[in-house]
């Protein structure tokens, strides 16, 4: 169904004879324009003309890559499914509106026809022509609108059915796009988190270094501690001595 719609879009914009370009452009990757020309069996300029027409309507996207040896750019193309479907939706809505206007006007107004020339006139124009054909001189007859109305209503129903399917495809495509966007957001968040963690690690390393330096500095304190210990020992020995003295 989707391919059929995409082909319809290409047919509207460029022409039915090139609708098969959709088979090449409906791809995940962008396709080399020289390959498109080769596969379509047309010249590169013909291929580019088609692609530019589609591009003017936003229906295809392109990327370019520089040929390192030759120094020129080659373009790669891909169909934009969502935009193409929206383009088709607008066209279908417009056609439905036009048919509905025709139906309204034919239900309200009388139409006249020259049966010999098969030319149709609305009431105003028929009056202007005095209900007589310019070409053959025949007198107009009142046109039976019922047949035309039935035809128009059938067309509207058909277009509305197609529009429904197009809207379904658009919804599917939107879901795909949203999923991709969500993935990208999650990926970005993951990268941000990793960066934050990396920064934190660096900060922690720095802190450890600072702490080590701080530990190395107060060597003097240790010496004083030792001195204190010596004093203690001295005191202890003194105490012992005094104790010994007491014993005596
Ligand atoms: Zn006539």
Written overview of the protein:
Helix content is 70%, strand content 10%. The strands form two sheets. The chain has a three-stranded antiparallel beta sheet with strand order 1-3-2. The termini are far apart. It has helices spanning 2-13, 21-25, 33-40, 44-56, 81-108, 123-128, 145-216, 219-247; strands spanning 31-32, 60-66, 73-79, 111-114, 119-122, 141-142. It is mostly helical. The chain is built from eight helices and six strands; from the N terminus they run H-H-E-H-H-E-E-H-E-E-H-E-H-H. Helix 1 packs across helix 5, helix 3 (33-40) packs across helix 4 (44-56) and helix 5 runs antiparallel to helix 7 (145-216). Strand 2 and strand 3 (73-79) form a beta hairpin. It binds zinc ion. Residues 114, 116-117, 133, 135-136, 138 line the site of zinc ion.
């Amino acid at each position: 169904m989707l391919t059929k719609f995409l082909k319809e879009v290409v047919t509207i914009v460029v022409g039915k004879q090139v609708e098969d370009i959709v088979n090449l452009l409906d791809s995940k990757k962008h396709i080399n324009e020289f390959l498109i020309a080769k596969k379509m069996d047309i010249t590169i300029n013909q291929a580019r003309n088609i692609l530019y027409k589609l591009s003017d309507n936003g229906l295809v996207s392109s990327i370019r890559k520089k040929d390192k040896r030759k120094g020129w750019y080659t373009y790669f193309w891909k169909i934009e499914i969502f935009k193409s479907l929206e383009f088709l939706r607008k066209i279908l809505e417009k056609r439905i509106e036009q048919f509905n206007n025709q139906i309204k006007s034919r239900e309200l107004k009388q139409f006249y026809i020259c049966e010999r020339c098969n030319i149709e006139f609305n009431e105003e124009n028929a009056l202007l022509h005095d209900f007589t054909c310019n070409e053959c001189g025949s007198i107009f007859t009142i046109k039976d609108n019922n047949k035309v109305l039935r035809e128009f209503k059938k067309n509207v129903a058909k277009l509305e059915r197609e529009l429904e399917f197009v809207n379904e495809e658009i919804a599917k495509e939107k879901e795909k796009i949203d999923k991709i966007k969500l993935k990208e957001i999650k990926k970005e968040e993951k990268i941000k988190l990793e960066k934050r963690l990396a920064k934190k690690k660096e900060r922690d390393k720095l802190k450890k270094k600072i702490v080590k330096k701080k530990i190395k500095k107060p060597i003097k304190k240790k010496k004083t501690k030792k001195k204190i210990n010596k004093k203690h020992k001295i005191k202890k020995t003194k105490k012992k001595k005094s104790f010994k003295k007491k014993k005596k």
